[in-house]
Write a structure and sequence with these properties.
GO terms for molecular function: peptide transmembrane transporter activity. The chain has 787 residues and is of the alpha+beta class. The chain contains 22 helices and 29 strands.
Length: 787
């Protein structure tokens, strides 16, 4: 179709009819803008288009063509015109061909003498940007400026416009006290257009750096202040930024004072204070005379390691499967009769701390040989008869130390001399040593109950700091005399502190943080070889949670894959991190022997909120029918109280789970546990988020699912599965029974399985002896040495 503008009445009438048709057509194919109810009009017979502000960027790029009054007036939004230098010709002749936005299948033409003006797209963007800058609306101006920089970088006025934006935005932010953003704006302006108001910009830079340095010093963020000062000294001459010379002299004086105070503390043998002051002196001024040498000297006199942790331990127990902090710190203070060293092709690899062990070929007798001559104090004081009594107490039902799995396995315990204990088993057992993970305290070796048997003892505790000091005479001058655990607000905060030199080790990383740290030359990152299984464990007598149908609904109502991949892994692919269908680890690789208890044919339930709602209704109907038969009232549906440990991963996961359950119409209350706690007090929560170290399913199955385990399950099928597992005589039977138990747990849901995580740890490369493939951070703490 061709659109001709003419002054004759006949042609004008035809044009009005065409315009009416165009408006009707445009109303059908209109582009939607914000708000959703608004429409973008691409053509009109009169007037001018409304000014839409930021919503302009929701439209397709277009030029505005305005027609003269003689031609009938009006305007159209045309696709960007192909004109030389994107300007109206000085003496145009002939016709202009254009396409109207929204009518891409038709082209139109108009004579040049009938066109009053053309408002080009980039000019409109510049005008909008300039107006918003003048009003101080920099947030509104930024999108327009960004489009100009991207699409029209050669526009002659863009450099000034961009400079005005940076300068005036910096002034506004400075008045608001946001000095960090002000400095960023001014430096960007200085790099982009050094000629723009050069003297004024330098004066502003000097003033804002002075205020920012004062703020950092007041907040005791000395290392960050020094890093900023060092960068400014390289980029700006001191004669132009007077603040640089001022703070350089101030930092020199501060560093000298801290260095001298560190020397005094060293001479007074207050090595903790000396170490802190010496490191602060070089943080303030890295090239302070004698600073680095003083730090090395103090580290040699009093070796100390700072460990960043997400949770501080309140209970020290190296055998806890549900408490990471308790397990970690417990290994530092206490030894265990049999300690897991790693995973092998047939279950865990365990070490007898008092000597050596032998197993008869028929796996019916386990001999423990005590070798005191190879042991350090106090472990060398162990008596054979005492150890035999401990093993016997563990098998007697009346004893507070009774453990049913050991009682079911052992038939008789005897002494063959003072240094050899014989354990006769009822039947062949594939791994009896895993049943004897018993914490050893001072009472075993003639000391007081609770006395440490590990290399360290707990010395000082506060909300965010715990000190562990060497409990015995050091093996050499380089042995670490003190390990300081510093609790960080999040794993990412710990990464920042490690990179800044405030920490030497990080106990627990998550995949996204591990990726960041692996790029550092000074940091080494290692994965723990054994994954943890994350789950929700019922912990109350809530009548609805007691029903398998309702628990199944809860599981269908959690988008586990989305939470794991999107929230916890931050979109990264991490081998071994996966959604699971049962309480046991799936291993890291498909053929990983660590996954011997996991049935890969049982797939995790998908996220099906509609099915979850249906199951909630079905469960309520079942409970109502049961109540009518018993002539009882239907229990009230009280809010679900979901507890979680005080760390950021558990918090993020539970917040996401809570949101998804609320979409099902359920009321959920989040309960954050006190620091160091991983299990709630009675009647304070209904479900608890647990990260469990189910590293040896043969024993951990009962510790997790048994009546006295974490889940406290009284389910008969679960109980039968546990008993048959403990009666297994070879690895084939063990695996078969564990797969059956996985099947039972998948159907009865004594716990709600979520996902498996592979955690990491990180440390400075000059800290030697930590080791690889360690199951606990402090497994080799006695061998740590600074290089």
């Amino acid at each position: 179709m061709t659109f001709h503008c003419n002054l004759t009445n006949r042609i004008a009438k035809r044009r009005r009819l065409q315009m009416a048709w165009l408006v009707a057509t445009l109303a059908i194919g209109v582009v939607q803008a914000l708000p959703a109810s608004a429409q973008i009009i691409n053509y009109a017979e009169s007037g001018v288009p409304d000014r839409v502000g930021l919503e302009l960027l929701q439209e397709d790029p277009h030029d505005l063509i305005f027609f003269t009054e003689k031609a009938g007036g009006g305007w159209v939004k045309a696709r960007l015109l192909d004109l030389p230098q994107r300007r109206m010709p000085r003496n145009p002749k002939g016709s202009l061909r254009f396409d109207i936005v929204g009518l891409d299948t038709k082209s139109f033409t108009a004579k040049w003498e009938e066109i009053e003006k053309i408002d080009f797209w980039e000019v409109r963007l510049e005008r909008e940007t300039d107006d918003l800058i003048a009003k101080g609306d920099f947030q509104g101006a930024f999108p327009f400026l960004s489009v100009l920089i991207r699409d029209y970088p050669e526009r002659p006025g863009l450099r000034k416009l961009r400079s005005e934006f940076l300068w005036k935005d910096a002034i506004k932010r400075a008045k608001e006290g946001d000095f960090e953003a002000t400095l960023a704006m001014l430096e960007e302006l200085r790099r982009y257009a050094p000629e723009y108001q050069s003297d004024a910009v330098l004066r502003a830079l000097s003033g804002v750096t002075d205020r920012l340095m004062a703020k950092l010093v007041e907040q005791d963020r000395l290392e960050l202040a020094q890093q900023m000062l060092s960068r400014l000294e390289k980029e700006y001459p001191t004669d132009k930024l007077t603040s640089i010379g001022k703070w350089s002299r101030t930092f020199q004086q501060m560093a000298e004072e801290k260095r001298d105070a560190a020397i005094q503390a060293r001479d007074a043998k207050d090595y903790r204070l000396a170490r802190t002051l010496a490191r602060e002196s070089i943080a303030v001024k890295p090239d302070i005379v004698g600073g680095q040498a003083l730090v090395r000297e103090i580290d040699q006199i009093y070796p100390l390691v700072r460990v960043g942790v997400l949770q501080s331990a309140t209970v020290l127990d190296p055998t806890r499967i549900d408490n990471w902090a308790s397990r970690r710190a417990g290994r530092l203070v206490y030894r265990t009769l049999f300690e897991v060293q790693g995973a092998g092709p047939e279950g865990g690899e365990y070490e007898f701390i008092f000597g050596d062990t032998e197993m008869t070929p028929d796996r019916r007798q386990l001999d423990l040989m005590i070798e005191p001559e190879k042991l350090e104090d106090p472990l060398n004081r162990i008596e054979g008869y005492y150890l035999a009594d401990v093993l016997t107490e563990r098998a007697q039902r009346h004893s507070p130390d009774y453990f049913s799995a050991w009682a079911a396995a052992v038939e008789a315990i005897g002494l063959d001399g003072p240094k050899q204990i014989q354990c006769l088993l009822r039947r062949s057992h594939v791994l009896p040593t895993c049943l004897l993970q018993i914490p050893v305290d001072g009472s075993w070796v003639g000391g007081k109950p609770g006395d440490p048997t590990g290399a360290y003892r707990r010395d000082e505790t506060s909300d965010d700091l715990v000190r562990y000091v060497l409990a015995r005479k050091p093996k050499d001058d380089q042995q670490i005399k003190e390990i300081v655990e510093i609790r960080t607000a999040s794993a990412s905060d710990g990464v920042s502190l490690l990179l800044q030199g405030e920490l030497d080790v990080l106990d627990q990383l998550f995949p996204a943080d591990a990726v960041r740290l692996r790029k550092s030359r000074d940091i080494r990152v290692q994965n723990y070889p054994l994954p943890t299984v994350h789950m929700l464990v019922p912990c109350s007598d809530h009548p609805y949670i007691a029903e398998p149908t309702f628990r199944r609904a809860l599981l269908y109502g959690i988008n586990r894959q989305d939470i794991l991949q999107g929230e916890l892994l931050e979109g990264l692919e991490s081998p071994g991190c996966q959604v699971v269908s049962g309480p046991f680890p799936a291993g890291i690789e498909p053929d990983d022997p660590l996954g011997y208890a996991y049935d890969r044919e049982i797939l995790p339930r998908n996220y099906e909120p509609r099915l979850a709602k249906l199951l909630i209704t079905v469960n309520e109907s079942q409970m109502k029918g049961s109540a009518e038969v018993k002539k009882e009232e239907l229990p009230a549906m009280t809010p679900l109280r979901l507890a979680f440990p005080a760390d950021n991963l558990s918090r993020v996961a539970c917040e996401a789970i809570s949101t998804q359950w609320q979409l099902l119409g359920l009321e959920v209350e989040l309960v954050e546990l006190p620091v160091g706690r991983t299990y709630p007090d009675p009647d304070t929560a209904d479900l608890v988020y647990v990260s469990a170290a189910v590293w040896e399913p043969i024993i951990d199955a009962r510790r997790l699912l048994g009546p006295k385990g974490l889940a406290g399950s009284e389910d008969q099928l679960v109980g039968l599965g546990l008993r048959r597992l403990e009666e297994a005589r070879n690895w084939r039977e063990v695996r078969d029974q564990l797969l059956i138990l996985h099947f039972i747990a998948n159907n009865e849901l004594p716990i709600l399985p979520l996902w498996q995580m592979v955690d990491s740890y990180a440390y400075r490369r000059n800290l030697l002896g930590i080791g690889r493939d360690i199951v606990s951070l402090y497994q080799n703490a006695g061998k740590w040495r600074w290089q």
